[in-house]
Each structure stands twice: as structure tokens, then as C-alpha cells.
Design brief:
Distance between the termini: 47 Å
Radius of gyration: 17 Å
Strand content: 25-35%
Low-confidence stretches: none
Helix content: 25-40%
Mean pLDDT: 88
Strand order of the largest sheet: 1-8-3-6
């Protein structure tokens, strides 16, 4: 595997219209934004572990979105090398990204608690650990207010769904173990 690029939460990965490489997300959560008419960032999508990021540069020569690390991230250049079947890898990634796009649209409607729980399920890793993005980012993704997000997260902590845990390199208030099976009454 070629060089790994490690970024901290809040770091800019690239800006729209910049030239650059395509990347494979090894771990972490990345926010993709477009700019609205007032030149302010507007949430467009997420990229998580396994996704290919910035592959549009191979077609158009520049990035389409602004990309920001919401959690600590590790990226490697894509395609990964001769051993990787780029076409199959890209098709699989596109299929996953298309499903995620539909899931993200669903996060913007319905009951507030359901939206946040769906996002938590999307971001929880195989070991049941979760690094939550900042409350404002969650609010932007779910189309809710940050105050609502704080209330919901506190409620999920009280019910036992979220339990804080120490995760290396992550602020204590953002690392959780997720357990939907042990909700307290």
C-alpha cells in the first residue's frame, strides 16, 4: 500500500475546483460540501471507510466538492496499485455511495430521534465503536438544530444506547460504544 495520509478532525482535505488525486478512505468520516449562493458550505454527502473520494478528478481534472475530515481519518491514494482491480473497486464503491446517498436523503425527514439513530448506525464500526462528528455537523447532516442533537445524544446516553469510551486520538466526549440491545426503560 502506498503512503497513508492521516488527518485530524476539522482538517480540510481539498477544495472544489482544485486539482488532485483520488483517495480511498481507510477510516474516519469525511463531509463533502457544495457552496450555496452566499458562498457558505452546504452539506452534500459523507464518505466513510472503504469509499473512494475524489474520483471525479480522473474525469474532470478537479474536485467537485469541498472535503473536510469530521473525525480523524486515514486516506491512501486510489487506485491502490496493480493488484487492485480499479474498475471493479470503483463500481463497488459507486454502488455503495449511491445507496448511502439514498440513506442520507432519508436522514433529512421523519422523527428527529430516528434520524440521529440512523446516522449513528451508519457511522458505527464493526466493533460497535463510534466517533461522533461535532454536533453542528450532525445537525447539518440530519437537517436538525444542534440543540436538538445535544438533547437526543444525552437521551441516548441515559437510555444506555451510547456509552462514552476512550478511543485513541479522539476527544472523550466524542467516543462511544453503541448498544441498541440494552436500552434502559
Amino acid at each position: 500500500m502506498r503512503c497513508t495520509w492521516t488527518l485530524d478532525a476539522g482538517e480540510t482535505i481539498y477544495q472544489a475546483n482544485d486539482a488532485g488525486l483520488a483517495w480511498r478512505v481507510r477510516n474516519g468520516v469525511i463531509r463533502l460540501d457544495t457552496m450555496n449562493a452566499e458562498k457558505e458550505p452546504c452539506f452534500a454527502s459523507l464518505a466513510i471507510a472503504g469509499d473512494i473520494l475524489g474520483c471525479e478528478t480522473m474525469l474532470f481534472g478537479t474536485y467537485t466538492f469541498n472535503a473536510l475530515a469530521l473525525t480523524q481519518c486515514q486516506l491512501t491514494p486510489w487506485p491502490e496499485g496493480e493488484g487492485a482491480l480499479s474498475g471493479e473497486s470503483l463500481l463497488a464503491s459507486l454502488a455503495i455511495s449511491q445507496k448511502r446517498a439514498a440513506d442520507l436523503v432519508a436522514l433529512r425527514g421523519g422523527q428527529a430521534v430516528g434520524r440521529v439513530i440512523s446516522l449513528i448506525q451508519m457511522l458505527t464500526d464493526k466493533t460497535g465503536q463510534l466517533v461522533l462528528p461535532a454536533r453542528q455537523d450532525i445537525a447539518d447532516i440530519t437537517d436538525l438544530r444542534s440543540e436538538t442533537i445535544s438533547r437526543i445524544i444525552k437521551g441516548l446516553e441515559r437510555s444506555g444506547v451510547l456509552a462514552t469510551t476512550r478511543i485513541n486520538g479522539v476527544h472523550l466526549t466524542r467516543g462511544y460504544v453503541v448498544d441498541f440491545g440494552s436500552q434502559k426503560s
